[in-house]
Amino acid sequence: VSAAPSAVLIACQQIAPWVTENVENRRRVTRAIVDALASGAGVIVLPELATSGYMFETENEVRAAALPADSPVLADWARLLAGTPAVVVVGFAELGEDGRLYNSAAVVDASGVRGVYRKTHLWNREKLFFTPGDALPPVVDTAVGRIGVLICYDLEFPEMVRYLAAAGADLVAVPTNWPLVPRVSGGLVPEVMIGMASARVNKVAIVCCDRAGRERGQEWNQGTAVIDQFGNIAGERRDAGLLAVPLDLTVSRDKTITEHADALGDRRLDLYGGLVAQEDHR
Amino acid sequence: VSAAPSAVLIACQQIAPWVTENVENRRRVTRAIVDALASGAGVIVLPELATSGYMFETENEVRAAALPADSPVLADWARLLAGTPAVVVVGFAELGEDGRLYNSAAVVDASGVRGVYRKTHLWNREKLFFTPGDALPPVVDTAVGRIGVLICYDLEFPEMVRYLAAAGADLVAVPTNWPLVPRVSGGLVPEVMIGMASARVNKVAIVCCDRAGRERGQEWNQGTAVIDQFGNIAGERRDAGLLAVPLDLTVSRDKTITEHADALGDRRLDLYGGLVAQEDHR
């Protein structure tokens, strides 16, 4: 069982993908990874569907952008990480081996693609273009800690962070595309507020990388945020570019709150079910 | 199936119970109910353990305050509601028919005690004095809407609001005693922030009634808040006294978010289980 490093620089690149500009989108991702690596990042998160843009009008637009998980594009990103412990989490339109289209995220380190997650909760019109994933997300054990993955609307289902925390995630990485909506009380982006709550009740770190750029008339929350294990925003960025914030991921491994209280141990699995925390992960 | 009224005045009485002053605590509850009724309240929420105070040093202190659910004290509170549709949710130290002590909340209307919930997630030193409840909370169908009940730390388990929303609750009433802790990002009381997230992801209203008064050296968040179905704080009070805020409880009955999105319908019960929404409650 690997130890979680006590200080990892968590980076987000709030870039602006553009629907139909698929070659340029991939270039933007490459540049974003290189820039973040230069800043010393240990975890580099990019938006949902960073390779394709979001505001599709036809399924053909999705298909033209879609990549298989074993595409040389993803292998090239792994090569950028050679000689570093860094991990990239990047959203991409996936062409499945079954010919279907998935809204996916890949976890990549220097050794290659370590895991792919297919979004299980499709938001609104995504249902017209994508097939929902049929499996819970992976927790990938990396040199910088155990990384769980969600995509955008998944975060609004508290069952998902709960599952990842119980499965041993130190950090939940969430590529997102959050359409612009009004802020809630406290001046918070609503989805960030939901992430803060999930971080606090599970004592787990969460990083959300949103996107920038007006695409086919759509604007975005630009709500990129790094949230610590107590539900505080450790850093946020409201415009395009790099956010890099150091976090102590070892905090995620101690779920005790007080002498007699434990965020996961106090669950009443006898009443509502749920995953038993894997003690060998503590 | 009853309709939810479109405007219900939700009242909280952030009173200050005092451990060992049990007769006076019950008088305070009575006065608080009478005052809230005079303001036109449809739902009146009081703190956790309003009859007993909180900072117990011995089990005997709890036992001296404990009341059975069929106590004349609770029946008297029902009588105060005669001729009104109003509902009271009040925390009390319960003496079970099994002789055990429970941290409970009663739902009372003019017809009497409609439901009792025994806190299932005991916080910290409560575990030294109380037995945890062995049943999920009730959803009580009243003249002012369907009211679900949680107590304090229960709210930090998102499974609980999820369960109540799926079981048809229009409003989740949460008597609490929140020991003073630092605010989180947005200047929010952390437990209120967690309530905001649960309200938004379940599209359900939540009302939290905290307590006031320094008791045996302990101060409190005084975080009393009424939270609407979009996760906004509709009203809050940071000192002792009455908070009364009108809410449209019919909003809780429509879980759609957009044409293709539904807060409960989009859950992936095939992946993580959960209660199927009772369609006859829609």
Task: Write up what this structure looks like.
The structure is a homodimer of 282-residue chains. Chain A is of the alpha/beta class and 282 residues long. Chain A contains 6 helices and 14 strands. In chain A, the strands form 3 sheets. In chain A, strands 5-4-3-2-1-12 form a 6-stranded mixed β-sheet. The first copy, chain A, has a 6-stranded mixed β-sheet with strand order 6-7-8-9-10-11, with helices on one face. In chain A, strand 13 and strand 14 form a beta hairpin. The first copy, chain A, is globular.
Which features characterize this protein?
about 280 residues, about 20% helix, 6-stranded mixed β-sheet, alpha/beta, homodimer
What's the arrangement of secondary structure elements?
2 copies of one chain form a homodimer.
Chain A (H helix, E strand, L loop, with lengths): L7 E7 L7 H17 L4 E3 L13 H7 L6 H9 L6 E9 L5 E9 L2 E7 L20 E4 L2 E5 L8 H9 L4 E5 L14 H13 L2 E5 L15 E3 L5 E4 L4 E7 L8 E3 L2 E2 L6 H4 L10
Parallel strand pairs in A: 1-2, 2-3, 7-8, 8-9
Antiparallel strand pairs in A: 1-12, 3-4, 4-5, 6-7, 9-10, 10-11, 13-14
